[in-house]
Design brief:
mainly alpha; about 60% helix; 16 helices; single chain
Length: about 350
Amino acid sequence: MDQGDVQIPDDNLPEHSEGIRVGRELLEATRPYVEQSSATSWWHVGSTFVLVIAALTAAGVMQWWPIRVVFSVLAALLMVRAFITFHDYLHGAILKDSRVAYWLFHAFGALMLTPTRSWSASHNYHHGHVGQISEASVGAFPLITARMWRDSTRWQRFTYRAQRNPLVVLLSYPIVFGLNITLIPLLKDPRKHLDSLTALVSHFALIAVVWVLGGFSLVFFVILLPMTLASAMGCYLFFAQHSFRRMLIASPEAWTYYRGAMESSSYMRMNRVMQWFTGNIGYHHIHHLNVRIPFYRLPEVMAAIPELQSPLTTTLAPGDIADCFRYALWDEKKQRMVSYREASA
């Protein structure tokens, strides 16, 4: 299977209003936007990586700590954008035939504790199963029904809540990226995940070199702080776009790849500045419908295709952020997300 490929079932399209495209027909409407310009892709990739390096350099050389914090935060935001370019490359949406891009993104993945083998396997699984009930967290946070919650043991409830706890997102640098994506796959199958070993060695070697050059303060402002912030922001974006109050979950019999994209993936409304820093990942319903669309064309697709313009939405407002963690279970009877308290009532 090629990088970024996901299986799309040959299901029969449900009945729908005349003239409204759904399912495979809607997917076909997005195909003209898959074509990408290498020059345009390199402009977005190159400018982003140059800005990341510039921000990290400023965070390292500035003397006044408040300015160093500012540049570390800026570097973290830019690292989120850089990660989206890495993510698009692994989906085959940009620069898929470029050897330069191959080495650039594999090096980036190693330094960011995102080895390409384990990331691609888990992330492609996620794309093929989004919107499905699962107690396992393969490529995504677990999601179970209210009935399953009521039938769970205390230990099962504890582990479920622990995996969806905000602290996991805040500490995703060591927990999600260091442990789940890198170390655990290596321990389970060392031969298959040698790139995880490369990632660990590369990441800690970088920390060691920076420490020798400038001590702990340089490590903190150039690596630890931006990595912690970038990991938390990226992890939350991923979590929130598949675990939000308004999302819908189809029954196993009614689930399709297309419904997972349109009903269990959100459009996250952001201002233009945050859209730029997050690489348009807020257009997540479109990305899940067709992973081969370059991130810089997602707004164009939404503007051109009416059927994509009324998605289920969430935002970065404090209330919506709280709701993403509060509404953690799917209630099959109420056909909506509910809180633990509601499920236990």
